[in-house]
């Protein structure tokens, strides 16, 4: 598989200036400028601004319907049931790279910015981070594996519906913050009017730590469980990124900070670093898989066992 990823320098603007000659404005806007800091492209894969849930398009209508179903179905009972069922990790055994290849069959219906197979996004994210943070190899690997929980869409994992696998995540068991995208649909969630679940703290206490908070079920929480139970040696910040990278109400709107503890606050710094690569690398850039695969295999061997229980 060949996916081209243009690495270039912006030192003094000279090299980029030469490369941009004869390149259209649209092509320039989809390039990732990584040296001297990450510069986000102006538009996503569809030519729209990133995470624009209001721009009129067929894709937008599908995304809104996704969140309607998601917000109705993600209840405390549902999350507990999924964590109990999938936390057993008795579905199969496979390596991290085998999971990357399995995931390549799917496109995320909740994402207004991306219509590419998942492995392309994973490598775009990992390579962008690698360019800017060459010494943080754990962060490169986190970029590669952060979405592997989307294998829940596969038939061998129960073929869960997309609303139970992808999309923005948020706590259940307390009030749904109004910053959550398409918040209005929570009114049809059975927990919405439950006095045990619809207050600021709900079933939690101030500073209890996000690790003690039930998050809406999906690929984030599943991959977190897989990594943790398979005894990964990734630092806690890596696990934090995996579990909360879709928690936009927190890292975009700073909702639910009252549930965080000191460790969460420290790890949040890395999540904010990661987030810009996760979001803004979703453009028409490409990576040569065969070229970068040996590097990522070496990281997998460093931080994970050869085979994982899933």
From TrEMBL:
Catalytic class of the enzyme: oxidoreductase
Whether Transport counts among this entry's keywords is no
What are the alphabetically sorted keywords of the record?
Ascorbate biosynthesis, Cytoplasm, Iron, Metal-binding, Oxidoreductase
Where is this chain's protein located in or outside the cell? Cytoplasm
Task: Please classify the protein's predominant subcellular localization into one broad category.
Answer: cytoplasm
Query: Which pathway or pathways does this protein act in?
Result: Polyol metabolism; myo-inositol degradation into D-glucuronate; D-glucuronate from myo-inositol: step 1/1
Protein name in the entry: Inositol oxygenase
Q: Which organism is it from?
A: Camelina sativa (False flax)
